[in-house]
Amino acid sequence: MELRECFEYFASRQTNGIVITSAGSTSGMWWKITHDMDRAFYLGASMSMISMFGAGIAMGAPKLPVWVFMGDGAFVMNPGMLMVERDLNLPNLKHFLVSNRVYNATGAVRLPNVQRNDYAAIARSVGIERVYYFDSLEELKSNFDTVVIEPGYTFTVLEVEPVREKAGGVPVDDVELKFRFGRYIERTAGIKIFRHPATEPVTGNKTA
Amino acid sequence: MPNKQEETTQFIVEQLVKSGIKLVASLPDDWVSDLIHAIDTDKRFTHVPVNREESAIGLCSGAYFGGIPSLALMGASGLMTCVYAITKINYSYHIPLFLFTTLRGAIGDPRSHHISNGLYLEPLMNSISLPHLIVDEREKIARIPDAFKHSQVMNRPTVVVFTEPVLRGEA
Prior knowledge:
The structure holds 2 protein chains of 2 kinds. Chain A is an alpha/beta fold. Chain A has helices spanning 3-13, 25-34, 50-60, 72-75, 81-88, 119-125, 137-149, 174-189, and strands at residues 18-21, 40-42, 66-71, 93-99, 102-103, 109-110, 131-134, 154-159. The interface between A and B is large, with 47 and 40 residues.
């Protein structure tokens, strides 16, 4: 499956939910396709932390769908994150592992143990029940509602070809992105994020 | 009747409540294990044990966008591993983050494997301009809400660093 066609399909099915992308090709491609600065947070050079980042949002905004697109280069740095995700089992968190078997953004150098890594098996081994694997767009489309629309935490491997085209960066200022993304969540999920602590005490939302 | 350490632990917990903290992500250091147990059994918090300290940084940074005031609780060694995560996520995007850690390797710590923390934790925090409050006497525990508020005002991480005598209720 090509990353571009995969992401174009996801973008066509996105409603009010948010997307978080990791370094390199996932961020570059999502930006290239959507130019979204409100429903997407491009956590560049984040080295495996985006699913935890997404989990934090999902806990506070339990009705907001949270899609996390993590490259396998990031995943191999911290597969233990899946244990935390399984513990949390957040119904609105969908973790997509974009597997291209290389560090795509930094010269397409191969990953360690590349031919033997079975990401779906790793996920199952920590007790994640809804684990999926798709290497064709047709399979993804035919199972999309089950995997993505039905509530419940899922871990899905999207096996894609390494991106040949230069995905490019995301030409968005980090702080502007913070506020646009945060304001979108405030509007959509009805929660308060930004306060001036001098005048508005931090009371916080309940966790899911 | 609670002993001094239990009283101190409860005092710290109450400062977290006063700060508005709802979520705690932790990975233990034996100095803070009592505190973690107290948080884990306190219904006022959601406690998430994490697999590594960077996961706590990620979770708490995301929780900010979920409107959940949070704490990343870890030992000194853990904080030493988090420089990239903190500078990349929290500094780049101006995301507040509140951390507790321990002043391991300080004079009085019998564990020689914490020598590097004793030598480098404070210089490290200074080198990345990471605001921190060293709690080396019980009275300073009451400043925890101020430290939390500082992170929110400045849109940066703030660290509260505990000495062992304070955590044991001996200082």
